[in-house]
Amino acid sequence: MPFILEAAMRQAILKQGVSVIVIPGDIALLDMPKNTPIKWQRPALQQITPVLSELALCKKIINQSSKIVLFCGAGCKGSHDQVLALAEKLKAPIVHALRGKEHIEYDNPYDVGMTGLIGFASGYHAMENADTVILLGTSFPFKPFYPKAAKIIQIDNDPDAIGRHTQVDLALISDINPTLSTLLPLVDEKTDHHFLDKCVEHYQTTRKNLDNLAEIKPKSTLIHPQTLAKMLSAKAQSNAVFTCDVGTPTLWAARYFKMSSQRRLIGSFNHGSMANALAQSIGIQAVDTTRQVIALCGDGGFSMLMGDLLTLVPYNLPIKIVIINNSSLGFVDMEMKASGFVSNATNLNNPSFAAIANACNIKGISVSDPHKLSDAIDELLNHDGPALLEVITDKNELSLPPKIKLAQEKGFTIYTLKALFNGYGDELIDLVKTNILR
Known about the structure:
The protein is of the alpha/beta class. The protein is built from 18 helices and 11 strands.
C-alpha cells in the first residue's frame, strides 16, 4: 500500500492531474505490517526547453511579419511577464483562450479579449487580420475562428496539441516560459504600433458595448445575466476563486468576471459537460476555508448535483452559490434556435432553490428585481457561512458569438418563421424586447 500510494502521488504531481487508487474491501481492513519502509521525495516538474534550430526558424518568421498576434492559453500559467514583454517588443495584441483568461488578462495593456463561440468581436478581428499568429500553450478547439491567411506558430509542451485544430507553419515542443525567455532577445523590436493600436481601440469599443448591456435602466424590470456577472465580479474579493457551470454561466464569466493576479477562474470548460461548479467549489473551499469561493451555477447544472448542498454545513464550507435561474437550458436553447428548431424541450420547471437552501440550514436568498440585485449580492457575500443566491434572470437573452456563420443565420431565420407559424409569436416579441429594444 505505501508503494502504491507513493506511485499515485508521484503520477498526480508529474502529470498535474488526478490519481485514483482502488482498494478491495478485504485489503482495506487489514493491519499495516510493522516497520513498513516509507520513502518519499516530492518530484520536481521537468522543464522542456526549445530546440535552438527551431527557435532560429521562429525568429525568421517573426522578423518578416508586421502584424503579429499572441494567442494565449492555460500553458501560459506563470509566464505573464514573459508574454507581456514579447508583446511589447513585437507590438503584438494579445488574444486569450478561455483557459488562459486567469493567467493573461490582468494588468495587460495589450489584451484585446477572447475569440471563439463565447469570445469578443475584438479578439476575432485581431486574429483575422494578423499575418502571423503565435499559439502559446493553447489547444483552442474552434476551427472557424482560426485565421485563413496567417502563418501559424504553435508552442506547446504537449506534442498531442500540435496541429490538432489548425495547420501550423512551425511547431516548437517546449514549455512557454523558457521558450519566451530565450526567444525575446533574438527577435527584432518592432517600431510600427498601428496594428496594435487599432486592435486595442477595437477592444475598448467592444468592452464598452458589453458593459452597456449590463447597465440597469430606470425602467428595467428583468435581471439580465450580464448585470449579475459584472456586479458579482465588482463586489467579490480581490483573491476570490470563481467556479462556473458549463453553458451560459461560462459565457457570462468569460465576458464579465475581471481577473487579477490573485483571482482564479475554474471550470470544466469542456463543451456539454454540466454540473461542475458546485462540486469544484467544495473541493476548493475544503483546501482553504478562509478564501472566498463563489460558484456561478446554471439552474440545469445545479439541479443535477443539488444533493451536494448537504455537504456544506457539516464541513463548515462557507461557499457562496449564485444560481442563474432562467427556467431554461440556456445554451442548448440558443443552439437549437441557431439550427432552426422551435421547441420547449429546454424549458425547466424549477422549484425555489432559495427555499431548498434554507431547508438545508443554508442561507437562501432570492431576487428578481434588478434594482434589488446589488443588496442581494451584498447579503450573500457578507453572510458568515454557506449561502445561496437565486437570481431570476431574463431567459430571452441571446449570447451571440463574434462571428455568425451563414448556417446559423439561416437556422435562426427558419426558427423565426416556424415560431410564427406554430403560435410562438410572443416568444419572438420577447426576444426583440430583450436584445434589441432594451
